[in-house]
Specification:
Radius of gyration: 20 Å
Number of helices: 12
CATH class of the largest domain: Alpha Beta
Order of helices and strands: HEHHHEHEHEEHEHHHEHHEEEE
CATH superfamily of the largest domain: Vaccinia Virus protein VP39
Number of domains: 2
Helix content: 25-40%
Distance between the termini: 41 Å
Shape: globular
C-alpha cells in the first residue's frame, strides 16, 4: 500500500475527516509476520483520543508532568536543540515529539514507532500546531527488525522514553541507536527501574501480598503484568548496573540519573511504606530495599542517592 493510501486508510480507522490533515508516514516495517509487540501496541496506543486543539495538546503535556514527579527534570524536557536533528524512538502518539517541535528550535525531529495508529495521531496532532512538515519525519517500523532505517551518524540527540523494555531485541536496538548518533551527540533513555517503589512496594507488597494478586508468579513475572496491561507481551525492569552493562556493550558510556515517580508510587509509600518494610510476609530483598530508602528535603524517597521511581533515566554518549 502506498504512503498516501496508508494515510487515508488510517485516517478512516481513527475517525479523521478531510479537514483534519495529518502528516504522511513512511512505512518501513519488515515484511515478516508482525510480532506480538507490534500487534499489542497497535491496539493499545497510549492516549488514543485525538486532541481537538493545540491548546488542549499542550495542556496534556503539562498534566503529565504533574502525574510523574521529576519526569520533566530527569528527562531534561525540553532542552536546547537549536538546529539539531532529534530522534524520538518509540514516539507513540506524539507527546514528546510535539514538545520538541513546539518548545525547541530543532531543525528536524524524527518519530519512529511500531504503531500505525499512534503515528497517525501524532501527525494529526502536529497539524494542529501547524508544524512545518519539513521539520518532521514519521516512520513506521516493526518490532521484528533489528535495524533503524536511518543513516549512520545522522542524529544529534536520541530520546527514547519507556520503549526498550517492551522490545524483543533491546540490546540490538541500543547498538542501532548508537550507530545513528553523531560522535558529539547524546542520548536520554528511560526503561523501567528495578530499584523502584513500583517493583518493591506496589508489585511485591501491595499487589502480591495484600491483594493476593498473581498467584504462582515470580515478582518479575508479576511486574510484567502490572505495568502496561496484564496481556502486554514484554515488560521488563532493569537494575541500573544491568542496563548500563547493556549500554556499554552497545558502545555507550554514561550514567543512571535516577527514576522519576508515578503519583501512585508516592501515595503508597506515604500510606504504607513503613508497614511493608516491617512485614515478614514480604521477602527480605524487598524489605531491605524499603529500609534503605532515604528521603530528600521535600520528602521524595531515594535509594543510594537516586530517586526511586519506576522511570529509570540514563544519560548516554558515545564511548
Amino acid at each position: 500500500m502506498s504512503v498516501t493510501r496508508l494515510g487515508r486508510a488510517l485516517a478512516r480507522a481513527v475517525g479523521f475527516t478531510p479537514d483534519q490533515p495529518a502528516l504522511s508516514i513512511s512505512e518501513r516495517s519488515a515484511t515478516t509476520k508482525p510480532t506480538e509487540v507490534d500487534v499489542y501496541w497497535g491496539e493499545h496506543t497510549t492516549h488514543s483520543t485525538a486532541f481537538n486543539s493545540a491548546e488542549e495538546s499542550l495542556q496534556y503535556l503539562e498534566w503529565r508532568f504533574g502525574q510523574y514527579p521529576f519526569f520533566r527534570e530527569l528527562m531534561e524536557l525540553w532542552g536546547e536543540h537549536d538546529d539539531r536533528v532529534v530522534l524520538d524512538y518509540g514516539c507513540g502518539p506524539g507527546n514528546d515529539l510535539t514538545g520538541f517541535l513546539v518548545y525547541t528550535k530543532a531543525r528536524k525531529v524524527i518519530g519512529i514507532d511500531v504503531s500505525a495508529k499512534a503515528l497517525q495521531l501524532a501527525g494529526r496532532r502536529l497539524a494542529l500546531h501547524q508544524i512545518d512538515p519539513s521539520r518532521v519525519e514519521l516512520i513506521k517500523i516493526s518490532d521484528s527488525t533489528r535495524e533503524i532505517p536511518l543513516e549512520a551518524r545522522s542524529v544529534d540527540y536520541i530520546y527514547c522514553e519507556g520503549v526498550l523494555h517492551h522490545t524483543t531485541y533491546p540490546e540490538a536496538m541500543l547498538t542501532e541507536l548508537r550507530r545513528t548518533l553523531k560522535p558529539a551527540g547524546s542520548a536520554c533513555i528511560m526503561v523501567y527501574n528495578r530499584n523502584s517503589l513500583w517493583f518493591h512496594l506496589y508489585t511485591a507488597y501491595d499487589k502480591m501480598i495484600l491483594r493476593k494478586a498473581f498467584p504462582g508468579l515470580t515478582v518479575e513475572q508479576a511486574f510484567s503484568r502490572n505495568t502496561d496491561g496484564e496481556h502486554c507481551p514484554i515488560s521488563r525492569c532493569y537494575h541500573p548496573d544491568e542496563f548500563m552493562d547493556l549500554c556499554h556493550r552497545a558502545g555507550f558510556q554514561g550514567e543512571f540519573a535516577g527514576g522519576y515517580f508515578s503519583t501512585l508510587e508516592l501515595e503508597l509509600f506515604e500510606g504504607g511504606g513503613n508497614q511493608a518494610a516491617c512485614d515478614d510476609r514480604l521477602p527480605s530483598v524487598h524489605r531491605e530495599f524499603l529500609r534503605g530508602l532515604r528521603c530528600d528535603t521535600k520528602g521524595f524517597p531515594q535509594y543510594r542517592g537516586k530517586y526511586a521511581g519506576i522511570g529509570g533515566v540514563y544519560k548516554l554518549r558515545m564511548a
